[in-house]
Amino acid sequence: MAAVGSCGEWFISTCGKKLVAIHSKQDREPFVFDCSSAEKKPKNPKEENNSDGGGSEETGSDKVLAFTVSSSGTLVALTDDSKRLVLFRCEPSWQCVSIRHRWVVRRCTALMFSQAEEELIATDKSGDVYSFSVVEPQREGELKMGHLSMLLALSMSTDDKYIITADRDEKIRVSHLRSPYNIQSFCLGHQQFVSALLVPPGHPHWLLSGSGDGTMKLWEYESGTKLQSWDLKDLEETPSSEGDKQKVTMNPTVCRISSSPDAHHVAVQCERVSTLQFFTLDQESEQKLAPHSRLSLPHCPLDMTFDSEGRLWVLMDSSDAPLQVYTHRGDSWECDAESPELIRVTEAFRPHWETLEASARSHNRFEHLYKVSFDNVTVYLQKKQQRLEEQQLKRGRGQQANGNKKAKKTTSESRSHSSS
């Protein structure tokens, strides 16, 4: 997983098995956590028959699967393919909060801190949601609730009242965090898996969702009311690359929705598409969500994040220039290629990025999630038609054989009469 985040003045990225944190303002030593050299989970015989492959040291690849930053920018957490759950505190200096790492039951798909930063919520591939205490970092996780399919995205209300989860079966569920069995609402309307969620800052009752159906929707999530919907393919301009040309006939998969700190700008990223779509949010306007502009990138983006100053950092699939910073000036987003912060972060980040294989960077995370439909009726009708044709052919052959027999019989009878 290649992803980026902002934690105060720290730029954070996960690439492969590492979490790398680089200070953007000062020449401080980068903080690097390598999962491959971290504590291994003791082998548990009971997990050998686990359908998920277990969490033993023989099976995990140590690749980072998910990470998150708290709203205050002081806490960071990650989970990896070996099922570690690691909690860090980054102020005043980086330190691992857990003396011994905690372990999740199954491989995680998303992490998020509560607004109060007292608990860490984790979703996994089996559809379960666990809560881990931040105050007591050694305590095991508590199962909160479950879905019937893989969970892909997670968000929470700004008052920690609701937990919002989205799964592969197009459902967005809004549940009460303290009593998750109590479902407040469902936000239904996507035609494919829901892959991104965001409660934009400053708009506590709104929810943005993105999906494999190529749409982004705006909801009033407490009631499950859909306020607006945008088909991102309709906003596409002339494709700028071969990868984008293929997307013209396909629905782009929304993989990230990110909001600026002032909540005025929303950036939407689609998997393997080298453009970003920007929207503006306005609570007073009738068109609460309005498309603003599109930003063409030199390479396909892998992830993006806004920093505390409202600048957009983009991680791209490129060995030469993996990072770019964009600033909103006037009515457009401009690249700050000479930004001192960008130069400092890129120099410190490049050695770690170069060790990540290109195949790992370009891997499509969502390709296997699309549902494959089987038209059993058409297959049945084709087989039925084939049977009817075969039966008709047999009847034709049978009638022809009977005709030949009758003809032979008539001929023999005629010969018999003439001889008499």
Explain what the structure shows.
Helix content is 16%, strand content 39%. It is of the alpha+beta class and 420 residues long. The strands form 7 sheets. Strands 5, 6, 7, 8 and 9 form a 5-stranded antiparallel β-sheet that branches. A hairpin with a 5-residue loop joins strand 10 and strand 11. Mean pLDDT is 86; it is low at 53-58 and 245-249.
- Which bin fits the share of residues in helices? 10-25%
Helix vs. strand class: alpha+beta
Biggest sheet descriptor: 5 strands, antiparallel
Number of strands: 29
Can you count the helices? 4
Low-pLDDT runs of 5+ residues are 53-58, 245-249
Distance between the termini: 100 Å
**What is the overall pLDDT average?**
86
What percent of residues are in strands?
35-45%
- Overall 3D shape: elongated
**Gyration radius, in Å:** 29 Å
Please describe the structure with a list of short key phrases separated by commas or semicolons:
420 residues, alpha+beta, 5-stranded antiparallel sheet, 4-stranded antiparallel sheet, 16% helix
Give a short synopsis of this structure.
The chain is built from 4 helices and 29 strands. The chain is an alpha+beta fold.
